[in-house]
Design brief:
Number of domains: 1
Distance between the termini: 68 Å
Radius of gyration: 18 Å
CATH class: Mainly Beta
CATH topology: Immunoglobulin-like
Helix content: 10-25%
Number of helices: 2
Largest sheet: 6 strands, mixed
């Protein structure tokens, strides 16, 4: 690769990344009609918001149903966001420990239901991906069949409490 081609590729990279980021909504959204029953909460606490302590041993759980009822390759990634939920300027290695993208391999088929579906479940953080700093994050789930097609986006907040206030 010559110097001119390399320089042109380097100059086009921000444009390509911005075009990809514009296809993703920075709020809780489901992009396709076959995805239903999306839930995102602290494990064991179904009615909680996805707000977790940086050092917590209790994970967040994302679960959803795919009404196409066949197994698909769904992958996910975490995007660090600023206070306005726009992607931050941090490099992925600055806020994640592990892989930057991973497959969701925890699924099960429906059994004796009127409508067949496949139920997917993802625990965060996990052994493949763990955040290293606090802040706002956007979880993006893609259908990974050739092109990455966004399927679900969900917001989550990782907090790092520095002080404790004890009520009296």
């Amino acid at each position: 690769m010559n110097k001119r081609t390399w320089l042109l590729g380097l100059l086009c990279l921000p444009i390509l990344l911005k075009a990809q980021a514009e296809d993703i909504n920075n709020y809780d959204y489901v992009y396709v009609d076959n995805i239903k029953s999306v839930q995102f909460h602290i494990d064991g606490l179904l009615l909680t918001y996805p707000i977790i302590d940086l050092t917590s041993s209790t994970p967040l759980v994302l679960s959803f149903d795919d009404l196409h009822a066949d197994v698909k390759d769904y992958s996910y990634q975490l995007i660090h966001c600023d206070r306005d939920w726009q992607p931050s300027q941090l490099n992925t290695m600055e806020y994640l420990d592990g892989f930057t993208e991973e497959l969701i391999d925890n699924y099960r088929y429906s059994f004796k239901t009127v409508t067949p579906f496949t139920h997917y479940r993802l625990y965060l953080p996990n052994e493949d991906m763990r955040w290293t700093i606090s802040g706002n994050y956007l979880l993006v789930v893609y259908e990974d069949e050739g092109d990455k097609i966004p399927v679900i986006t969900r917001r989550l907040v990782v907090v790092d409490p520095k002080i404790q206030i004890n009520p009296r």
